[in-house]
């Protein structure tokens, strides 16, 4: 039996129902939720990132939801440090009058951010600025497709995992490759860190067709809720890294006049489906995940959690 508190990680593809499941678990365990969804950190983005609605946020305390601005430089390394500080504060409070929690629920589809908290980040060499400048120049002159093709050829393992529509991620991987001559993926999973909690992974899954249908419906709902207006308000800041993401990038193209509105909506659905596929690739490599059908009643999952945390 472990004396460590538990960090219960609810993971799975986008639109699978992680939010409602995490809230149900947190309510029953009388604990709080840490969001590891890198798209939901930013207060200027709401509709396109599927931020939980007010009723959901009020149901249990949430952390890292719309807590940053798109004008801040915020990395996975920043998140790892802040999340670990928060976890330590909740599990081992310095003030003896502060309630000590036995568990926390972390939720998200951003596998890299979850892995950073659970296992720590890998260490990468410092790359000269001129290499990144050269890659930025390549993207500007040859397009993002050029960078995608390079990464697919030089590091197919990492290519299969990331959002290949995000130029920041592409350039980060390629600058390491160009500087070291080694695949970016070869630097991953090298670091072993001590954590004063024990992770317990709960994964929600469904047939691909079901996931894709749920994604399509969610995008339609986002459009109905005002996503186009939200994206237009952010159009002047389209170069910010936080906005290099599905749901906004396609609408920026529409505002540019390069594609029609209906085509932009179709592209959002397509790119979100691709993102869900890459999420599946990332999570499937984690053998610690306990998978449940997305329709599983939360009481069944809570019973599973109770057994695991009581042993």
UniProtKB/TrEMBL annotation:
Q: Which organism is it from?
A: Aequorivita ciconiae
Name of the gene: miaA
Task: Map out region (Interaction with substrate tRNA) in residue numbers.
Answer: 37-40
Say which family it is in.
Belongs to the IPP transferase family.
Its keywords, alphabetically, are:
ATP-binding, Magnesium, Nucleotide-binding, Transferase, tRNA processing
Cofactor or coenzyme needed: Mg(2+)
Say which enzyme class the record assigns.
Answer: transferase
Q: Where is this site: Interaction with substrate tRNA?
A: 110, 132
The positions annotated for binding substrate are 14-19
Carries keyword DNA damage? no
Binding-site positions, ATP: 12-19
Tell me the lineage of the source organism: Bacteria, Pseudomonadati, Bacteroidota, Flavobacteriia, Flavobacteriales
Q: Name the Pfam families for this protein.
A: IPPT (PF01715)
**What superkingdom heads the lineage?**
Bacteria
| Self-association state and partner proteins as the record states | Monomer.
Question: What is the protein name stated in its UniProt record?
Answer: tRNA dimethylallyltransferase
* Coiled-coil intervals, chain numbering: none
